[in-house]
Write a structure and sequence with these properties.
Order of helices and strands: HHHEEEEEEHEHEHEHEEEEHEHEHH
Helix content: 25-40%
Distance between the termini: 19 Å
Strand order of the largest sheet: 3-4-7-8-9-10-14-15
CATH topology: TIM Barrel
CATH class: Alpha Beta
Number of helices: 11
Number of strands: 15
CATH architecture: Alpha-Beta Barrel
Length: 392
């Protein structure tokens, strides 16, 4: 694997721990959303001016520090060539402001959004809370974003190469605008995809966020079919996936798997954040003074890991071996990444774990996956998907 043993004059892990380590060790301090926005402001400038000598040198050093290239990690899924199976989940780069530089962080793909047709401010603040001890987060953001038309301007301004000629895959996560009724939801999603579809390698129908009233009703089989058919008719429609909630029962999961198969979706992403408090009902959210059981919003991070694995296994059993699954929720180590892949996920995504662990999580996971492939005598990551091979 390239880059593993080279001498380093730049350590992203050292910088991250120096600036963010002490903040992430406790719930209070700098507001979680403000901290995220400060980071995004810097990344936006880096993306826009990535060819300037000083910035390009820094990005090159970042890539040397974090990228891990190995043919064993490469896969082609739904027409996209993934250099590795690890992606950044939707929700961090909501407006696509750093779309051109995520490969420098070692990711094989990034999912931008969630983006809606209408720009919206989201729910009232505070709306993002760290749960440091549990390595978890509670969010009730509410699809705050600048809208689809603004995202198109943002992506075009970065002069990103077209699909098929990029260093990493770019996915687009689509949501319903809050002001749009469920009846008109297909038109809302379609309006966004119509102007953004040609810029994306794949697109995701997000019908599982708990923070937009009524949205999860679109996971109903007939509602979802109606939505898929509407998007499929668009001439610029890229491969379509759907992102589902962890709070569905087995019957509902089986129904969604059937819809995905019958409608020829490119894949399923499992799972979104959870309304289940997963044994943390009495955990006090410091900023509000209230127990988690009465707080609104979705729970993410390490507590979600067991349920996320259950859903992936259920989908793999009922959706067939040919439907790609993307596993997300509670992945924060090489072992948890391996666990999700051998449970049935062809690709995996991180977000909350990446925040707590820092950029070093990406190369640690990729090195761990290659090590396991070597120990099991496998030539490619695709060989172990759904294999239930142990971590050794």
């Amino acid at each position: 694997m390239e880059n593993k043993s080279e001498a380093r004059f730049f350590s992203s892990n050292f910088v991250y721990k120096q600036f963010f380590g002490h903040i992430l060790e406790k719930d209070d301090g700098i507001d979680a959303e403000k901290l995220t926005q400060l980071t995004l402001n810097s990344l936006e400038k880096a993306s826009l001016y990535r060819k300037w000598p000083g910035i390009s040198n820094l990005l090159n050093e970042l890539a040397k520090d974090l990228q891990r290239k190995d043919a064993k990690l490469e896969q082609t899924l739904f027409g996209c060539n993934f250099s590795n199976p690890l992606g950044l989940a939707a929700g961090f780069d909501k407006n696509g402001i750093a779309a051109s530089i995520w490969d420098n962080f070692g990711f094989g793909f990034v999912e931008l959004g969630t983006v809606t047709w209408h720009a919206q401010t989201g729910n009232a603040k505070p709306r993002l809370f760290r749960m440091s001890k549990e390595k978890a987060a509670l969010n009730r953001m509410g699809f705050n974003n600048n809208g689809a038309e603004k995202m198109k301007e943002t992506l075009e301004k970065q002069k990103i190469p077209p699909p098929g000629n990029r260093p990493s895959i770019i996915g687009l996560n689509l949501g319903k605008s809050k002001i749009t009724s469920l009846e008109h939801a297909p038109d809302d999603y379609a309006s966004s995809l119509e102007i953004l579809g040609s810029l994306a390698d794949y697109a995701v129908i997000n019908v599982s966020s708990p923070n937009t009233p009524g949205l999860r009703q679109l996971q109903d089989s007939e509602q979802l079919r109606r939505l898929i058919k509407k998007l499929r008719r668009l001439p610029s429609c890229p491969p379509l996936l759907v992102k589902i909630a962890p709070d569905l029962d087995n019957r509902e999961i089986d129904g969604l798997a059937q819809v995905a198969y019958q409608e020829g979706l490119a894949g399923i992403i499992a799972v979104n954040t959870s309304l289940n408090r997963l044994g943390l009902e009495e955990r006090i959210i410091l900023q509000t003074g209230r127990p988690l059981r009465i707080e609104k919003g979705g729970l993410s991070g390490k507590p979600l890991r067991p349920r996320a694995i259950e859903v992936i296994k259920r989908l793999r059993k009922n959706a067939g071996e040919d439907l790609p699954l993307i596993g997300v929720g509670g992945i924060d180590s090489p072992e948890s990444a391996w666990e999700r892949i051998v449970a049935g996920a062809s690709l995996i995504q991180v977000y909350t774990g990446w925040i707590f662990q820092g950029p070093i999580l990406v190369p640690n996971i990729l090195e761990g996956l290659v090590s396991q492939l070597n120990r099991h005598g496998c030539n490619n990551i695709s060989e172990v998907v759904g294999s239930e091979l142990p971590w050794i």
